[in-house]
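I'll show a sample.
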Amino acid sequence: MSALCQKRTLRKRVLSLPLMGQHRGGYDDALRTIARHGAAWRDRSFGSSRSRGSTGITAGIKLDEVVYSHMEELNGKFKMRATEATFAPGAHLGVHHHVGPGVRYVISGELAFTEGGKVTIYRAGDYFFETGNLAHTADNKTDLPLRILFVELLPKDWTGPTVIPPTP
């Protein structure tokens, strides 16, 4: 299957999740759906996984720009997207990965990031990199809000959420 077909298939799967079809391109809705319905859609499509099912995640795209630079091989093919997300105390983002790679910056609060069974705690001022293709979870296990900035490299025509369910 070509890379383009894989991207289209993933996008269709995300948009078929509860709420997604009604709010195409709604990043907030993608996060809320995964948080609220995580176990339901994972158990149905991707194998069993435990979820606390909490809500309380909001996000907004702050920048979405097609790349044009001195790196000509990237020009017009990719875009950079910056999204700021807020996790309420106790919020949980179920098993997911991302469309593209990116840098994360914890603005305030504390993030418990679980990948490959290893939990890493990121605090305000910390940066980290995600490849995009590795499934993980994200939790705010504190009683204070968590604010995090996602800066991602995406295909230029990508309009949907960048949080996607893992492939079976």
User: Anything to note?
Assistant: The chain has one domain: 3-164. The first helix runs from residue 3 to 15.
